[in-house]
Amino acid sequence: MARTIIENIVIAKYEEQTFFEFCKYTTIRFFEILYFEKGTGTIKINGKTVPYTSNSIFVFIPDDIYIVNPDSATTTVAIKFLKSFFRNTSSQNGKLPVNGWFRKIEEILNSESHQLREMQFETESDRLHLVSLINMVATEYMREQTFDNFIIQNSLSVILHLIARNIQFINTAETVKAVKSSKIQQIINYIHTNIYNSELLTTKSLAEEFHMADNYISEYFKKHTDVSLKKYIINYKLKLVETRLKYTDAQDSEIAIDLGFTDSSHLNKIFKTYKGISLRAFKANLA
Known about the structure:
47% of the residues lie in helices and 18% in strands. The chain is of the alpha+beta class. The protein folds into 2 domains: 2-173, Jelly Rolls (Sandwich), CATH 2.60.120; 178-286, Arc Repressor Mutant, subunit A, CATH 1.10.10.60. The strands form 2 sheets. The protein has a 5-stranded antiparallel sheet, with helices on one face. A 3-stranded antiparallel sheet has the order 5-4-7, with no helix packed on it.
């Protein structure tokens, strides 16, 4: 059973299922959270099969295709953001913090390590918080006409934040060399968290934040990541630019301002230098 609670977001709960039909929303789904409240079985994702158990949580991004094959009666909750949600075509969505939600999902869209999409958590408390919030959304959903949009909207915001935070932790752990440095993890996390605030990402600001000399932090960063601090920040920004161009209707000028470029011309120049293609040509290739 599925119902659209907020325009272009579908909430679905299936109880004690021994068979799951192919998801009809696959072609128009942008992002999905799938929580296995109860049951065991396997889930085939993009041709690869992994097991699930009670309290497993998976996330899916555009083009992911999955099929659930239960071994025992399975109860799931699915929260699906449709592709149209993050495009500026809905008057109802205009009342929601859509841009803020997209920023949280960006980390997941850019995750290279999360190929099988099963969530891993930095702490067990994060898992428990996420499960509690998903259940809260499902409970409001089950109340049919008496659901509270305020609870659902705010719960979804925290859900996305928790997912993004833990994806960030996983990605950071895999970015650093075999000899892990908690300081490097902290720096990378700080960069990702503050990527929309360029003033906090200057060498001086980062050196002050992490109690290092201005002329040492860049050397330290490159030693542990094999890439310069400046290049890492620019490359990460350009990943976010690509994501915005692919999945939203944001104008070049909006993206430029959001990510700390002087204007769309400056963004285009940097994009072409690093990617070897102009913004216009990149968008044309998406068509």
